[in-house]
Write a structure and sequence with these properties.
This protein is mostly helical. The chain contains 16 helices and two strands.
Length: 324
């Protein structure tokens, strides 16, 4: 413990490395071939298909196809159908990055990337805490809390890309803080790259990245260009790769989700779609806010954005946010 106290960064690196070892060893104890979710199994099927066909654009292996040509008894709940063949429903970046680890380390190799990402989340959560508070004890408390008392623990031992997306976001957040408050302009490009990678791993991260971009527009407008360049160029690269591999620049599941009844029901309400998305969640059967609160919430949200763009009125933006 004395060595750790002498240098916080060395201590955090040590903690992050120990977290990685713990996560990975714990995940390695899982029974081979058994997953917590259908998503994980589907991604392993994709990896096996790529290894067999040596083609990242290959259709998924389905041994029962001769007996079930219409896929009436297909065990996969999510998949894309094209020209009579089934394809991966998810982004293929994460399973492709996991493929070499699986090939050389077997089933346990699937958990190397999630475990590394979990350790990075712990590290950058603590770094952000240190940057903001300058409190060493609070920094270590944050590292422990994130490592073992948050969903990070679960996702770090699960064959999902969630931890990689969050690790990218945490790294982006730390680099943005450095860029803004220490005037390290070079980190703006890298933070944009990390934000793009967060979306590459998990499409819904685009909403969070849009929020970060909007904050930059409000508080550091001159630095938006650098961040946007890193974000845009990186997104263009992986979007092109995705289109080549999957026929969609983002993910096949984007088109599939758009065809769902609940999604169409939301989309058909026109401009109301925006406040419904912001304040309601009928697609997961949450309680409806009702028209009155929906209108109030929308107005408050508009005032938050409007007042934040004018320096002398930013206090009103904060008041509107409290109301929201």
């Amino acid at each position: 413990m004395r060595a750790i106290k002498l240098n916080t960064d060395k201590g955090l690196i040590t903690i992050a490395f120990l977290c990685f070892l713990f996560y990975f060893l714990l995940a390695s104890l899982k029974p081979e071939g058994i997953f917590w979710s259908l998503d994980e199994g589907g991604k392993l099927i994709y990896i096996e298909s790529v290894l067999r066909e040596k083609n990242p654009s290959t259709a998924l292996i389905y041994p029962g196809k001769p007996l079930d040509p219409k896929y009436e008894n297909l065990a996969l709940y999510f998949y894309s159908l094209n020209n009579g063949e089934i394809y991966s429903w998810w982004q293929v970046g994460f399973p492709l990055l996991s493929l070499p680890f699986y090939k050389f380390f077997g089933f346990a190799g699937l958990y190397i990337l999630p475990s590394i990402a979990g350790a990075l989340i712990v590290f950058f959560s603590a770094k952000i805490t240190k940057f903001i508070t300058k409190n060493q004890n609070l920094t270590y408390l944050m590292a422990f809390t994130v490592a073992f008392c948050s969903p990070v623990f679960f996702y770090s031992v699960t064959f999902w890309e969630h931890s990689l997306s969050v690790a990218s976001i945490m790294m982006m957040t730390y680099l943005l803080l450095i860029s803004i408050f220490q005037d390290q302009k070079g980190f703006l490009y890298i933070s944009g790259i990390m934000g793009s990678l967060a979306v590459f791993f998990r499409t819904e991260a685009i909403l969070l990245i849009a929020g970060y971009w909007l904050v930059l527009v409000i508080i550091e407008r001159k630095k938006v260009v650098s961040f946007t360049l890193g974000l845009g160029i990186t997104s263009l690269i992986w979007g092109t790769i995705n289109y080549w591999l999957m026929g969609n620049p983002i993910s096949p599941n984007v088109q599939a989700v758009q065809s769902l009844t609940n999604f169409n029901g939301l989309a058909n309400v026109g401009l109301k779609y925006i406040p419904y998305t912001l304040f309601n969640a009928p697609i997961i059967s949450a309680y409806s806010l009702g028209r009155g609160l929906l209108v109030v919430g929308t107005l408050l949200f508009a005032l938050v954005i409007f007042f934040s763009l004018i320096k002398r009125f930013r206090l009103f933006s904060f008041i509107a946010f409290i109301g929201l």
